[in-house]
Design goal:
mainly beta, Porin, 18-stranded antiparallel barrel, 9 helices, disordered N terminus
């Protein structure tokens, strides 16, 4: 069964599929793209079927319409497709500036700042839009007497060719310094969370990011996307199934929409940077992922989605690359993984949403990395009970105040969840978790409030998290890159064990949005971070920040 409730890891001699296509432990994504291009032809008729940026700032514009009772869109799969948004929302009016027109706003410069793309070409069979991506910001870590800044420059280009092909690409390059807690994390991992590997010159970090995708839409039912990007599955602020916390990865995504069902398959090539050596020129070790997600709209008020994933890696001889058995988009991954006699990492999950009315909804997720019913019933804290749970709610126009949004969310992840016997098989990519930024062994409560008035966007978030870190010589199940076979405690495990950190975040943010097309914003932010650590004691951080930026991507620095 696809979602069998009981499974154990089996260590059996691996069976390898060694074909010319996958020689030298490389999955050649060009062949997959060529297959899609040959199989389908584009007709020459204009349409909009590109993905919008995977950004909470962008998605918040459409969510009040998508979460109404009776909408047909499957909101748990992100990024959103523009053609889907056009069918469910007043897309053009939502992306129109509400600023009062003046002589300046009607000039060429004024239009580019407030209402238009920097460059655009709109022909019958071809559309191209080009915009800058940048951030010029500065701030201060008050309690550690540190100034920090970000200098980001890049571009975002997207468009379509004919009726069915669309494309999107963006690139940006950065020089940054960071607040003390972030600087410590980056020094350890050599990764700016979600944004890439760094080159370091003292306290200054240089890093870049490139995201690109090509999408082909076959009639109304099939969508194929090949690219180097991120994905998100869920309706919450966090996702315990698949989030955009980690770096981009090459992938082939296929989406089938039929009746009230959306079926999504992602084949991905990822990297393990555990053995990253700054002085070496060797390529990073590759790992692979296959993700299946099927979402059902139930009546006008509810949806439920079932999720499964397999993570695996090639062997030391380079004979094992992308398993052909996992490439069947309709195959049940867990039985297939067992049938291969493999030591691969299998995960199962569920996502659900219920709309109470058009202004209020509840949502949740369950992630099962391991599940043995007898051990769960015993209540003895067995290490192999690796599960996560999410519960949340959203409310729009609270107290009948238009554009006032409230969200509450609770996440609970048991120790050792997402770990594997080695880092190459864990649920991570590029030295980051594919789910929660803090890995596992935690609980977290989040409250979000947002109010929008014309061009002004006000945002507040408070979160309280308890997470248990490793102590010397022990593995308490927080770091997903440590093998679950190392120094673990088999029983009496509980969430928050180890060096317990209670992390309180309070953030206030004000944005004045000049151009809704790029979310070009002048912003100011103040954050309070309080960490009460069992070993190191209390650490308080007060952060002030302001600047000008395009808000097209999510950043998760709240840890």
């Amino acid at each position: 069964m696809m979602f069998q409730m009981v499974h154990r890891e089996f260590i059996i001699k691996e069976k390898h599929i060694n074909m010319k296509l996958f020689r030298d432990n490389k999955f050649n994504m060009r062949y997959a793209l060529l297959f899609v291009l040959i199989l389908f032809r584009a007709t020459i008729t204009p349409a909009q079927n590109a993905f919008i940026p995977l950004s909470n700032s962008v998605q918040q514009i459409y969510d009040p319409y998508l979460d109404r009772v009776g909408t047909k869109m499957h909101t748990s799969t992100k990024p959103y497709l523009e053609s889907d948004l056009r069918s469910e929302t007043p897309f053009d009016s939502l992306n129109k500036n509400t600023i009062k027109e003046t002589k300046f706003t009607k000039t060429l410069v004024g239009r580019k700042i407030f209402s238009e793309d920097l460059l655009f070409i709109e022909k019958e069979n071809f559309k191209l839009y080009l915009n800058p991506v940048f951030e010029f910001s500065g701030g201060r870590d008050q309690d550690n007497d540190i100034n920090f800044y970000t200098n980001q420059r890049g571009f975002w280009a997207h468009g379509s060719v004919g009726k069915r092909f669309s494309f999107s690409t963006n690139f940006y390059e950065n020089q940054s310094t960071f607040a003390n807690y972030l600087d410590s994390s980056i020094n350890k991992t050599r990764i700016v969370p979600g944004q890439g590997r760094v080159k370091q010159d003292g306290k200054i970090y240089d890093y870049s990011n490139a995201i690109a995708s090509v999408t082909y839409q076959c009639e109304k039912n099939f969508t194929f996307t090949f690219g180097n990007e991120k994905n998100f599955i869920g309706d919450g602020y966090r996702s315990l199934l698949l989030s955009d916390n980690s770096f981009n990865y090459p992938s082939l995504k296929m989406v089938l929409d039929v009746w009230k069902i959306r079926y999504q398959t992602i084949f991905a090539v990822m990297q393990d940077l555990t053995n990253d050596n700054p002085s070496a020129d060797d390529p990073f070790d590759k790992k692979y992922g296959a993700f299946h997600y099927i979402d059902f709209n139930i009546g006008k008020h509810a949806s439920i989605g079932l999720f499964e994933a397999i993570i695996w890696h090639g062997d030391s001889t380079g004979n094992r690359g992308y398993e052909l058995a996992y490439m069947n988009p309709l195959v049940f991954l867990r039985p297939t993984e067992f049938g291969l006699g493999s030591p691969d990492n299998a995960l199962l999950g569920m996502n659900a949403k219920v709309k109470i009315n058009s202004k209020n909804l509840v949502y949740g997720q369950i992630m099962l990395d391991e599940f043995l019913l007898d051990e769960v019933k015993a209540g003895n804290g067995w290490w192999g009970n690796k599960q996560g749970v999410q519960l949340g709610f959203k409310s729009y126009d609270l107290f009948k105040v238009k554009n006032l949004f409230i969200q509450g969310e609770f996440n609970y992840i048991r120790p050792y969840t997402y770990t594997h016997r080695e880092s190459m098989g864990n649920y991570g990519h590029y030295r980051s978790a594919l789910a929660h930024p803090l890995g596992a062994n935690l609980w977290e409560a989040i409250g979000i409030a947002r109010y929008t008035y014309k061009q002004l966007d006000l945002y507040a978030k408070i979160s309280l998290c308890e997470v248990g870190y490793d102590t010397a010589g022990t593995n308490v199940g927080q770091d997903i890159y440590i093998s679950y076979e190392e120094n673990r405690q088999d029983y009496d495990n509980k969430v928050g064990q180890g060096d317990t950190h209670k992390i309180l975040w309070v953030t206030f943010n004000a944005n004045y949005v000049f151009n809704p097309k790029t979310r070009l914003s002048l912003f100011a932010e103040v954050s309070l971070r309080n960490v009460d650590a069992e070993v190191k004691g209390v650490d308080n951080t007060t952060l002030f920040q302001f600047g000008l930026k395009t808000r097209l991507f999510n950043r998760y620095y709240d840890f």
